[in-house]
Amino acid sequence: MTLSTSDNRYLKTSFIYLIVSIVLMIAGAVYEHFSFGVYSYFMIYAFAIPLAGGALPFLAKFMKGMRGANAYSGAVEVSAYSGAAAGITAYSGAADATAYSGETAEATAYFGAVAETIAPGHHEAIYHLALATLTAGSIVHGILAICGRPNSLTVIYLIAGLLLLAVTALSAVRSSATRMQK
Pairing relation of β-strands 84-91 and 76-82? Predict the structure, then answer.
């Protein structure tokens, strides 16, 4: 089983997000312990954003790469394209035959592109920026709530983070559509 460099990159990225989540979790727990009963859920649970948005999706991408490396080691793939594409793939002794109509193939490609936005491949910079914006916004909102000075401008972090996630998703779908046309 050989893993590609991108698979190792997914593992490293997942590990970094896990460390960030643990640091935020410890900081939230320490603050809550010494806060004399004054705390904010936005600050305590800020660790959930990098954990759920970063560590888990990139770990899933790494595991998917490992499963793919195991499934395709020594596998033979034969495809015939006449009208509708039919593929017969042998997975280490087991055979799987699947026939795709044109609509099914397009739907599969579309949902594959949407699923790719969970942990986007080459759109990672925007995705990381979105997670950092949402995490920072949660911490800032928590600090302002603890100080007793809630500010309606903290919603800008949420809007900016969600817009960045939308840009990532649209960019990934567009990139996937461009790849399918080639």
Answer: antiparallel
